[in-house]
Write a structure and sequence with these properties.
Distance between the termini: 94 Å
Order of helices and strands: HHHHHHHHHH
Number of helices: 10
Length: 207
């Protein structure tokens, strides 16, 4: 009788262990697939060499949203988002503080959503960080552990390499809603500064 109970117990434990293992494998597989897709999209947009000024001129606010989203989505591949965003009010013929500020708001939303690519990449683990970025990543990881949200805000507002802080936030399981909030706040401040300074520059050079 005792042997039967022990066998049943062992069978249940093995079944539970197998179920948990299958869930973990399934989850990791999905995350890996997402990261691979994001990297492929990043490389494709990087290689296409799209004329973003024409896209902004053609699609207006949606073009700016797409520019900001794709620029933030691409991990470690630079894109000309800042220069085009600065010229966007002039290209679109926007006048007035409200319209130009609305453009900055749209750009900040696209940029914040795009940065989720780095967050989810970090959620998978540190292994995805290339060796040449390892030292910088370790430093950013320490800042994230110590400062959390304010570190995300500072990196999203300044020209510092935000992809690394996004990866660190994901790796540390920093709450995703807090990540988006601090990222958006920093990108909003940055976008508003860029579009308003860009408008001033446009009027100086193009009248």
């Amino acid at each position: 009788m005792g042997n039967n109970q022990n066998q049943e117990k062992n069978t249940n434990e093995e079944s539970t262990s197998r179920t948990l293992r299958e869930r973990v494998i399934s989850k990791n597989g999905l995350v890996v697939l997402i990261i691979v897709l994001l990297l492929v999209i990043s490389i494709v947009f990087w290689q296409l060499d799209i004329d973003w000024e024409k896209q902004v001129d053609k699609y207006g606010f949606f073009g700016v949203f797409l520019l900001s989203f794709v620029s933030s989505l691409t991990i470690f591949f630079p894109m000309p988002a800042e220069a085009v965003l600065a010229a966007a009010p002039g290209i679109m013929g926007l006048e007035g503080i409200a319209e130009i500020s609305r453009l900055g708001l749209v750009a900040s939303i696209g940029a914040a959503l795009g940065e989720l690519s780095a967050y989810f990449a970090g959620y998978w683990g540190r292994a995805i960080v290339a060796d040449k970025y390892r030292t910088a990543y370790n430093r950013v990881d320490r800042w994230m552990r110590k400062y959390g949200g304010p570190a995300i805000f500072i990196f999203s507002f300044t020209p510092l390499p935000f992809d690394l802080v996004g990866i660190a936030a994901g790796s540390l399981r920093f709450p995703i809603w807090k990540f988006l909030f601090y990222c958006w706040a920093g990108r909003l401040a940055r976008a508003l500064l860029i579009v308003h300074l860009g408008t001033i520059g446009w009027h100086i050079f193009f009248g």
